[in-house]
Write a structure and sequence with these properties.
The chain is an alpha+beta fold and about 325 residues long. The chain contains six helices and 16 strands. Helix 3 crosses helix 4.
Length: about 325
């Protein structure tokens, strides 16, 4: 005879008002004639298991609610894209956290006559950075807040705008805050980033990078110029061996476009073969959208990475900044 069991759960109220959860398994016993002769019912008290599940579910809701609120705080620390556009009208920021909060962040400030000025319309230079902190989610978000605070101190507080000096100071700040130089501390968290000091009037960019490049597409060109950052990260021990970051001077003309980005876009897993998007494909994509407006470029990049990812999980935080001069 064949047996096909059915299982279901029920909740009942006890006399004292408490909950009683039961799991019931019904198994029919079939005779030789194919008819059901009897049904075997096995009831199991699963109240304690259900209580534990409810506790876990509530904790998950509380944690998610807490992280969602933390997202509001993190987003409040980021520059408003409208403020960036006020100074760089043809620009976009594509910002896609992997989780609710992000380890990627971007930073922006206006410098007027050697001092920070967020109000003056007659600005002379700008500082723009795309940063990729160790990890993503909550750990990455903590790192991003540390990085954001240190950049505020370095650029806004100490008025350091030279990219080499700014990255050197950021490196020292990260090592101090995270106590890298104390032997008992095992953490080696840090960040990669590209930082630019942009002189709009003189059409010049000073750039330095920690593992992150700057991509430049000259107006009318059919190739991407890659200005590579140094192969050292903010917080790396290698910096204590006499190394420093390099500032690159880049001349730009009207119609040229630069891109700063974290590794989230090229590292996204997807496509027909379930592989990384890759940096080479990313550069090809940038070339293919040069005829679009800067806002259309943002939409095209967003659509491209979503299509590449498909139903798969987002691999990492994604940040892409584009600026057309």
């Amino acid at each position: 005879s064949e047996k096909k069991s059915n299982k279901y759960e029920t909740i009942n109220l006890k006399k004292d008002g408490g909950e009683l959860w039961m799991s019931s398994t019904l198994t029919p016993v079939i005779g030789k004639d194919g008819e059901v002769k009897k049904v075997v019912i096995i009831d199991t008290d699963i109240t304690e298991r259900k209580k534990q599940e409810q506790v876990i579910q509530q904790k998950n809701r509380d944690i998610t609610d807490s992280i969602t609120y933390a997202k509001k705080i993190q987003e409040a620390l980021l520059p408003l894209e409208t403020n960036i556009k006020a100074k760089l009208p043809e620009s976009f920021v594509l910002y896609k956290p992997k989780d609710i909060v992000s380890g990627d962040f971007y930073w922006f400030a206006e410098i007027q006559n050697g001092t920070v000025n967020r109000e003056s319309k007659d600005h002379s230079t700008l500082v723009l950075a795309a940063c990729d902190c160790t990890g993503h989610g909550v750990p990455g978000a903590f790192m991003s807040m540390i990085g954001n605070d240190l950049l505020n101190q370095i650029v806004l507080g100490q008025n350091i705008t030279n990219p080499t000096k700014a990255l050197d100071a950021l490196h020292q700040g990260i090592r101090y805050v995270l106590r890298h130089d104390e032997g008992e501390m095992e953490t080696r968290d840090g960040m990669d980033l590209a930082l630019c000091h942009i002189d709009i009037k003189n059409k010049q960019i000073e750039y330095a990078g920690a593992h992150r490049p700057l991509l430049l597409i000259k107006n009318g060109d059919q190739e991407v110029t890659i200005i590579k950052g140094d192969k050292i990260g903010i917080g790396d021990d290698a910096m204590h061996k006499g190394r420093s970051f390099t500032t690159h001077i880049i001349e730009v003309n009207k119609g040229d476009t630069m891109y700063l980005f974290s590794d989230g876009f090229p590292d996204q897993i997807g496509g027909p073969k379930n592989k990384k998007y890759k940096s080479s494909r990313f550069r090809e994509m940038l070339l293919s959208i040069q005829s679009l407006s800067i806002d259309e470029q943002k939409t095209a990049l967003d659509n491209e990475i979503n299509e590449w990812r498909g139903e798969k999980e987002q691999t990492d935080d994604i940040l892409v900044i584009g600026v057309k001069f």
